[in-house]
Amino acid sequence: MKEYTQNVPNLEISEEERNGSIELMSAIFNVQSTSGDMKAMRSFIYHFIANLVDDRIHIESDDSGNIYVTKGRADTYPCIVSHIDTVHDIIPDEDYLVLNNGLEFFAIDLALKRPTGIGGDDNNGIYCCLDNLVREDNIKVAFFVDEEIGCVGSSACDMEFFKDVSFVLQADRQGYNDVVNNISGTKMFGSDFLEVISDDLDNYSRLVTSGGMTDVMQLAHNGLEVAMANFSCGYYKPHSDNEYVIIDELILTSLLFRDIIKSAYSDGLVNEYFREPYTDYFFNAGDYKISDWYSPSETVKTDKPMQTKSDCSYCGGELEYDSTTDAYYCFGCLDYDYMNS
Q1: pTM of the model
Q2: Nearest to 251 by CA among 24, 6, 1
Q3: In angstroms, rounded to a whole number, what is the distance separating the alpha carbons of residues 324 and 107?
Q4: Residue 85: closest CA among 34, 41, 133, 46
Q5: b/e sequence 44-79, b meaning 16+ C-beta within 10 Å
Q6: What's the pLDDT tens digit per position in 286-324?
Q7: What is the distance of C-alpha 189 from the center of its chain?
Q8: Distance from C-alpha of 237 to C-alpha of 158, rounded to nearest angstrom
Q9: Distances (CA, A) of 74 to 56, 97, 165, 266, 297
């Protein structure tokens, strides 16, 4: 199943730690959520954090349902964010079976006797948030609602929560090797931050590229002037019934976040990144349509053929060429398919 991964380093952790990671993944993947119905995942996150019994952790939420968690006392914090909705319909729990073969996680709809989506987009991001929350002494994590219908939660989030963050990381991209620094023309970080984390990226076989809409882009549009990035995290064929998650690639992504925190964070440091004012929004949060933020008629070049057949490398969805990134965009994944570019 690893036909889309170009280069993945060996995972060098103990069997005990790997098994603990698999246990956390399984707990997350067994919670179903979809845009507009995330109460089960919100409850899971609250109960997980309560069970840590750590008085250094403070948790709160806003009227939109976003969850904000602060651990420790510091002048500044590293920050990891994720979204808690998926695109998959919620099926009866008795029909939803999460399986892993030691290498991959996937899910089965027992009633229909066929695969169903496991929600790696963005359950994998939730894993990275919770895994690093447990391990770090000082950290902030945020969980946004309704990203899949236009970054609704992050567009309405409490920006005061982010006033003392040093940088923001997100794990919300298919595959493994990508570090997204350009989202539809919005730059996420500059050369200074890249220099600080470049050894970590090399150690984990990561390459800087462009990518699709996600919450860190919205935080930039909200005016947050710190370095941010979105990372591939080991899920494949997103937004489809055949979605699966490669276990070691997800663990490696969380370990990469841990190493970036070691390299780029010290209390009091802000990894500032000042962006040009951005006004050309591609979508209207809360009233999301592809055409609101992506217009093929404006982006299709004449020197590359437009693909409209179902041939996305990841989910088999419809592709069209986007000249702003020189890549094909998949309407199934809501992301770029660089394997076809």
Answers
A1: 0.87
A2: 24
A3: 36
A4: 34
A5: bbeebbeeeeeeebeeebeeebbbbbbbeebebbbb
A6: 443 333 333 333 333 334 444 455 577 767 778 887 665
A7: 17
A8: 32
A9: 11, 42, 10, 10, 49
- Helix, strand or coil, per DSSP, at residue 59: strand
Q: Reduced to 3 states, what is the DSSP secondary structure of residue 70?
A: strand
At how many degrees (to 10) do helices 120-135 and 247-264 cross? 50
| Cα gap 335→212, rounded to integer Å | 5
CA pair distance 116, 239, nearest whole angstrom: 10
Which residues, at least 6 apart from 197, have a Cβ–Cβ distance to it below 8 Å? Answer: 260, 263, 264
Q: Provide the residue type at 18 as one letter.
A: R
Alpha-carbon dihedral angle through residues 45, 50, 52, 57, given to the nearest 10 degrees: 90
DSSP 235-281: EESTTSTT-EEEHHHHHHHHHHHHHHHHHH--TT---B-PPPP----
Radius of gyration of the chain (CA): 19
